[in-house]
Amino acid sequence: MGKEKIIISPVTRIEGHAKITIDLDENKNVEDARLHVTQYRGFEKMCEGRPYAEMPGLTARTCGICPVSHAISSSKACDNLLAVRPPKAGRNLRRIINLAQIIQSHALNFYHLSSPDFVFGFDAAPEDRNIFKLMQTHPQMAKDGINLRAFGQKIIETLGGKRIHPTWIVPGGVSHEISVETKDSILASIPEALEIAQTALKYFTENLHKFKKEIDSFANFPSLFMGLVNKKGNIEHYDGFLRFIDSQGNILEDGIDPRFYKDYIGEAVEEDSYLKSPYYKPLGYPNGMYRVGPLARLNIANACGTPLADIEFEKFKNINNGKPVLNTFYYHYARLIEIIYGIERIEQLLNEPQTLDTQIRAHANINRNQGVGCSEAPRGTLFHDYQADDNGIITGVNLIIATGNNNLAMNAGVKQVAQTFLDGNDIKEGALNRVEAVIRCFDPCLSCSTHAQGIVSSTIEIRDEKKKIIQTIRRG
Predict the structure, then answer these.
(1) Where does Fe cation bind (predicted)?
(2) Which of 321, 326, 349, 432 would suit a FRET pair with 415, their CA atoms being 20 to 30 Å apart?
(3) Going by C-beta distance under 8 Å and a sequence separation of 6 or more, which residues neighbour residue 386?
């Protein structure tokens, strides 16, 4: 009896396209499992030769789910090229739209992509594990998901002019100020959004006991965690400093200016995926595996800094007696806490008098030839690194997308889940669903994270008019 390979393609209920391969040994035990990201986007090359001012608009096209996050990091990289800091109102407005992006994206993952597993179970029939079944059996929950996502999307549309690919975030700040009427309109929608988020959190925490096996085995292993924190060490999504901690909660690096990320983060390329594999340089590749995103942000932070989120933050910290929570299943819990934080923080920012100032943008010419922008996207820490000549023409780009930071952990996760749940002699659909579900915990956005550097494997088949292959070109 020889070795066998199981292929799950495509991985369902995620953003983008990917496949998972599971290798079985001669005894049909899981030997290895890998996540392969099958898209290639190439934005890093396409942007070369363009004026720096176009970069927020260009790079936002990387993704239709999180364009705001790219526009934020891109504009910050351009701020860096100009050597300016946007006025307080400009910074506050950028923070608000970034949080709105995070709220709507988190709601998409929880309600539309992941909740069918929570509601119907991981072993439910595949035709039942979807949002349409949820609409039939739990209509209020489905409506809540739509309304909470709409809350974030409406803020993006109101401030940015449109829900997808807004052009309002620009180098130096934002293009126009917020009116009193707009501010009041957003504030009026906050109580309902907060109530929906709290209802979802209550549902999730009350049903956690049903998923003990998944909690114990969904990418539950030691790793580092990385993210931004503010000067108080609290959770931060727009600005701040990088912090690395280990699996015991020890701070390895703190107060790192994101402009110097290359001193701490290396980038590896593997032959079977277009997704880069960043790692913590001092530990090398692949031992420097770290995780980013909601779970990491709560693990590294001292507090959230808003009333309701901090109450849940304390409960979250108690899961592992104050030490980092290692179970990837808890990404869902952290995501819901971040939604509450985001709503509360938007309210705080709108109530700051300076947010209404008309000074919203700083203007300058190119003053540096390299600029790095960093922010927290829904899925984790996002880096835009640009080189430009003295005329502001882009000569080089490096992007580390949030999802890419989790690549090593996602691969380790699918292997752990496959080895726990998959029996090669009797392959159950529910076991395969769990292998996919561990990826959904990370909420990867694969359409915008495929920017491999170096050699990647690819095959080009040239066929004649009868579809017969006349030449095959392989690289890598």
Answers:
(1) 66, 448
(2) 321
(3) 52, 55, 77, 78, 81, 370, 371, 372, 394, 396, 397
**Backbone conformation region of residue 423, classed left if phi is above 0, alpha if psi is from -120 to 50, else beta:** beta
Q: Has 445 been labeled as part of a binding site?
A: yes
Q: Is 312 annotated as a binding residue?
A: no
Q: Is 106 annotated as a binding residue?
A: no
Among 339, 436, 385, 394, smallest CA distance to 106 is for 339
Place of tokens 């983060």: 265
* CA neighbours closer than 13 Å in the CB half-sphere of residue 187: 13
Question: Angle at the Cα of 231 (from 226 to 234), degrees rounded to 5?
Answer: 55
Say how far apart CA 231 and CA 215 lie, in whole Å. Answer: 33
- 8 Å CB contact between 7 and 24: no
Q: Are strands 173-174 and 169-170 parallel, antiparallel or unpaired?
A: antiparallel
Q: Distances from the Cα of 292 to the Cαs of 5, 214, 300, 381, in angstroms?
A: 30, 20, 10, 6
The answer on whether 448 is annotated among ligand-binding residues is: yes
pLDDT by residue (tens digit) across 246-290? Answer: 999 999 999 999 999 999 999 998 877 888 899 999 999 999 999
CB 325 within 8 A of CB 335: no
Positions of CATH 1.10.645.10 in the chain: 85-366+407-420
pTM given for the model: 0.90
